[in-house]
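Milestone M4 deliverable, item 7.
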Amino acid sequence: MRFPAATWAGGSLAGLMVVLGVSAGLAADRSFPYDDTLLLEAKPMKGSKRVPILQIESKGEATIDLWCNSVPAQLVVADATITIILGSPTQKQCDPERMQADENLMAALQQVTGWRRQDDLLVLAGERSLRFHLSSN
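Output delivered:
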């Protein structure tokens, strides 16, 4: 069966538009999650339901709720690289285990050099990888 050139061209154009649409959708899913809230992939510490939360604003300003304290941050993103500059954390009184967990998480965040996104997961790569899930709220 032979198809007229106009039909073939129209079908090819429609196919190309579908492929470009899917590619754009995949690219959007892999973009840096500005204006999002992300939860650290971790189990809550004993006696709490809290896990660290990363709130990222549109220009890279962020707030990180740690295991005990919160810390302001600036995220500088360029392609697949990232630098996290932490401010001074709040100074709440918590048990020593939570305070140490805050220190460990801040140290890991400062060593992050790269990022990648897989659907609702943001992976911050450094000496230790940190995995954050987009909040469903």
